Amino acid sequence: MTSKTPILQLEHLGMTFPGHPVFNDLNLTINRGEFWSIVGENGVGKTTLMRTILHQLRPTTGKVNYLPSVNAVQIGYVPQFRNIDSEYPLTIRDFVGLNLTGWKLPWLSRGERQRVEAMLKQTGLTKLANRPIGQASGGEKQKAYLAQALVERPNLLILDESTASLDPVTKTELLDLVQQINQTLDLTVLFVTHDIPLARRYTQQFLMLTPQGTEQGAIDQLTDQKVWRGEAEHV
Ligand SMILES: Nc1ncnc2c1ncn2[C@@H]1O[C@H](COP(=O)(O)OP(=O)(O)OP(=O)(O)O)[C@@H](O)[C@H]1O
Q1: What is the CATH number of domain 1-74+154-235?
Q2: In whole angstroms, what is the distance from residue 232 CA to residue 227 CA?
Q3: Which residue's CA is minimally distant from atom 1 of ligand 1?
Q4: Which among 27, 76, 138, 142 would be 20 to 30 A from 163, CA to CA?
């Protein structure tokens, strides 16, 4: 059995928007290579938690620690489906490599171009690589967002309801790829989802947010009863 190496630790984390507590005293340790689902009904605070983990929001209490140091954690983030203007001029290939350019050179090195091509292939986008991304279908756009996040070689990937608008085949294709990288390259994944069967199929652990508090455990402990109870309590 391999030993567990923490990559992310939430300590007594709490978030309150003015007059509106979202979560409180949340403690969680995520280890390298783990695949977590983050579940809970609409409005319970899943995206707020992800934005706090990304340091986009400052928690009201507690803290988010990247381990062993902030520099050791490279985060990839794939948001919920967002449409892209049909006139947007970048090709799918340029879009996938967009975040690789910038800080050293304004163009991609040969190695970076090869990484983009490999990622286009892995996400099944090679044949469409020259198509303007604005003209791609919803599923193709979402694959391009995933490819853009993965090409940066993150060691922590956050999928924030990224598969919600996709058909079952495309969902499976994307999550199969994420699972493959999770298993071969020890990628740690946080998968925010309302799709409990999908969570059971791909993830190993769950964090469930409810208005009363949080619960975490092995995915086989996420029973239907627990999910229904969590949702019913809020009605
Ligand atoms: N910047 C903000 N200021 C005030 N309230 C906010 C802000 N962002 C989110 N909220 C509120 O905090 C609560 C949690 O929102 P959040 O988007 O995190 O929920 P969620 O669990 O991701 O929901 P969903 O499943 O519908 O995407 C909601 O009531 C939302 O209206």
Answers
A1: 3.40.50.300
A2: 9
A3: 17
A4: 27
